[in-house]
């Protein structure tokens, strides 16, 4: 049986997506929601926290929670999260399409990014389709000294799940760069970009726990569907 706060969360998401609760309007207060759903305040707070985490509402101190634009997905900049994990967290109806899988033969720049020779680099190109629209192009490159085998099934499911679960490796940290570029011919071939003149690219160098560089990736996003979020804390001097 589904937990009460998840049932409330699902109901509020349905009302927001159906515009029963429009963008830029306030949700009922916590007290009103406890009466409406016949539950405790703690349960309501859990549901509201999940709505906030997934980008449906913004909490305003002293006022309550306002509904924000759900047509943009909140992608965390900090942390290392697989697309499968993120899709589950955001409750996305998504599909992964493997466009290309094999070894690099000519791209010297990617070899330099991974500090290795060309015959040791896997190239994986995947399109992420969300709600019927192709809006993310992931271009991943792996050093096959750490990742010796990749298959289409692995790439359609989760490469990180395979690396950690089957290879027993521990992913440690990543260095990230976010840039805005003009779409390439490849972007336009694999994504639904009609009418768009820019694309947001997150470039990652990903390292294992032992500090060895094993992955370079470019995750290319259609700009209208995403906001990239981070958490920062001011440290007093």
TrEMBL record:
<feature type="domain" description="HTH gntR-type">
    <location>
        <begin position="2"/>
        <end position="70"/>
    </location>
</feature>
<protein>
    <recommendedName>
        <fullName>Trehalose operon repressor</fullName>
    </recommendedName>
</protein>
<dbReference type="GO" id="GO:0003700">
    <property type="term" value="F:DNA-binding transcription factor activity"/>
</dbReference>
<dbReference type="InterPro" id="IPR011663">
    <property type="entry name" value="UTRA"/>
</dbReference>
<keyword id="KW-0804">Transcription</keyword>
<keyword id="KW-0238">DNA-binding</keyword>
<dbReference type="Pfam" id="PF00392">
    <property type="entry name" value="GntR"/>
</dbReference>
<dbReference type="InterPro" id="IPR028978">
    <property type="entry name" value="Chorismate_lyase_/UTRA_dom_sf"/>
</dbReference>
<dbReference type="InterPro" id="IPR000524">
    <property type="entry name" value="Tscrpt_reg_HTH_GntR"/>
</dbReference>
<dbReference type="GO" id="GO:0003677">
    <property type="term" value="F:DNA binding"/>
</dbReference>
<dbReference type="GO" id="GO:0045892">
    <property type="term" value="P:negative regulation of DNA-templated transcription"/>
</dbReference>
<dbReference type="InterPro" id="IPR012770">
    <property type="entry name" value="TreR"/>
</dbReference>
<dbReference type="InterPro" id="IPR036388">
    <property type="entry name" value="WH-like_DNA-bd_sf"/>
</dbReference>
<keyword id="KW-0678">Repressor</keyword>
<dbReference type="InterPro" id="IPR036390">
    <property type="entry name" value="WH_DNA-bd_sf"/>
</dbReference>
<dbReference type="Pfam" id="PF07702">
    <property type="entry name" value="UTRA"/>
</dbReference>
<keyword id="KW-0805">Transcription regulation</keyword>
<dbReference type="InterPro" id="IPR050679">
    <property type="entry name" value="Bact_HTH_transcr_reg"/>
</dbReference>
């Amino acid at each position: 049986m589904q937990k009460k706060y998840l049932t409330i969360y699902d109901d509020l998401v349905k009302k927001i997506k159906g515009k029963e609760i429009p963008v830029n309007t306030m949700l009922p207060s916590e007290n009103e929601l406890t009466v409406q759903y016949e539950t405790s305040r703690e349960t309501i707070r859990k549901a509201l926290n999940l709505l906030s985490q997934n980008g449906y509402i913004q909490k305003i101190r002293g006022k309550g929670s306002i509904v924000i634009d759900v047509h943009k997905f909140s992608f965390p900049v900090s942390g290392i999260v697989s697309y499968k994990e993120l899709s589950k967290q955001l409750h996305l109806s998504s599909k992964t399409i493997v466009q290309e899988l094999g070894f690099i033969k000519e791209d010297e720049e990617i070899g330099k990014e991974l500090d290795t020779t060309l015959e040791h680099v896997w190239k994986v190109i995947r399109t992420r389709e969300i709600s019927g629209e192709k809006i993310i192009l992931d271009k991943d490159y792996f050093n096959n000294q750490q990742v010796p085998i990749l298959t289409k099934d692995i790439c359609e499911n989760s490469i990180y799940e395979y690396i950690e679960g089957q290879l027993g490796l521990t992913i440690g940290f990543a260095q990230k760069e976010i840039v805005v570029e003009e779409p390439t011919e490849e972007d336009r071939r694999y994504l639904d970009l009609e009418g768009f003149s820019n694309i947001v690219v997150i470039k990652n160098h990903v390292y294992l726990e032992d500090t060895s560089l094993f992955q370079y990736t470019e995750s290319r996003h259609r700009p209208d569907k995403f906001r990239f979020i981070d958490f920062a804390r001011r440290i007093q001097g």
